[in-house]
Amino acid sequence: MRRSIVGLLALTLATSASAQPPAGQPPAGQPPAGNRGPGGRRGTPIKPGEQCPPGTTEIRPNNCMAPEAAPPSILDYRPRSTLVTAAHLVPRAKYPAIDFHGHPQGLLGSADGVAQLVASLDSLNVRMMVAADNMSGDRLTRALAAIAASPHKDRVRVLAGIDFRNVGPGWADRAIKQLEADVAAGAVGVGEISKSFGLSIRKPDGSRLKIDDPELDPIWDACARLGLPVFIHTADPEEFFQPIDYTNERWLELSLFPERRYPQDRFPSFEQLMTERDNLFRRHPKTTFVAAHMGWHANDLPRLAKMLDAMPNVYTEVGAVLYDIGRQPRAAHDFFVKYQDRILFGKDSFQPEEYPYYWRVFETRDDYFDYYRPYHAFWKLYGIDLPDAVLRKVYFANALRITRRLPQTGWPK
Asked: Exposed/middle/buried for 53, CB within 10 Å: 0-12, 13-18, 19+?
């Protein structure tokens, strides 16, 4: 009996040993280990350089897998960060700021509206807003009258607008006459010239009015003669001109606001508009231009640097591009330090609760904090920790220097 048990055990061990696969090979009937994900589930192999199939993600080099749970929509996926970092909230700017890109949303219609606006500015340490609503004629004089009637007349200034309709014979003389009247009424500059200039405004013959159209040269020369900075918004983010697919960083925004898309069959390309804009800047070296939204080059600071190097008459402002500034803290810090004399603070839409995000990015070294509009950016921001001397220039000194009609006294030295 004992011999039988020993013999059976030996036979079992021998059989088991013969069934084992060679070293490095998976058991019979199982896929190679490299094609298995966590938990032993089989993945989908791809070739080097290929993208994972839709609905899957890369879990190992060249191996993709779909999640077991039904994936949430991009709207519902809101991971809560577990990163523990220092948080330095900055409700007020360190130095009094000039918002060069103000859109006060109808608050300039009465003295009470101006008082409401100023109360919000006080809470943020924004000493002055430059209303950049492309106002002209009666609309501009009504706004200036409301400002003058309030006890806060030194807190708001207004840019004049230009009407680009019906460009042709006689247009330049009419436009210059209106601009001179607006300046006499109290306008301190020109703008915000809107993105429709170059994108959609047409000449009487139906052709697109190009940004560098020679018929416009007299108005830009008049701005130089009158000492008026020209605040110009050209195009929109480059992603708005690209296909709306799942590689587009602005997919969610373009899906929420489809009117922000610029299909190639209906609009000039982003690069065409940039070329026309740069031609304008180069052709009028005596005119001071301020490229709104960092010229839509906040995601390509080397390109913006080349533009500023080549065109000493050009400045830029930071409105509505904080999402790009704050995701490259080292590069942005170095850029702001190098071009500290060429950058103006501006916010764009007037939402008082959003200004402190700018202060926090500019003034702190904080890591990995939320941006204020998820549909603009699904990534986090970082502080770029600007020196005080740079903050003073960006917040107010540069705007004062190029806009001589702004009140020049009472600012920090």
From this structure: exposed
Provide the mean pLDDT of the chain.
91
The burial of 232, by beta-carbon neighbours within 10 Å (0-12 exposed, 13-18 middle, 19 or more buried), is given as: buried
pLDDT for 175-218, tens place per residue?
A: 999 999 999 999 999 999 999 999 999 999 999 999 999 999 99
62, 92 in Cβ contact below 8 A? Answer: no
Whole-angstrom distance, CA of residue 295 vs CA of residue 367: 26
* Per-residue pLDDT reduced to its tens digit, 310-342: 999 999 999 999 999 999 999 999 999 999 999
Q: What is the DSSP letter of 202?
A: B
- CB under 8 Å to 25, separation ≥6 — which residues? none
**Nearest one of 361, 292, 290 to 322, comparing CA atoms:** 361
- HEC per residue, 20-78: CCCCCCCCCCCCCHHHECHHHCECEECCCCCCCCCCCEEEECCEEECCCCCCCCCCCCC
Indicate if the pLDDT at residue 392 is higher than 50: yes
Q: Determine what percent of the chain is predicted with pLDDT higher than 70.
A: 90
Q: Is 52 exposed, middle or buried (0-12, 13-18, 19+ CB in 10 A)?
A: middle
Task: Judge if the upstream peptide bond of residue 238 is cis by omega within 30 degrees of 0.
Answer: no
What is the arrangement of strands in the sheet containing 57-60, beginning at the earlier edge strand?
44-45, 63-65, 57-60
Sorting pLDDT into bands at 50, 70 and 90, what band is 77?
confident
Nearest to 183 by CA among 142, 149, 219, 223: 223
Q: In which residue are the tokens 């039904």 written?
A: 70
In degrees and rounded to multiples of 5, residue 21 shows phi and psi of -75, 160
Mind listing the domains of the chain with CATH numbers? Answer: 97-193+289-402 (3.20.20)
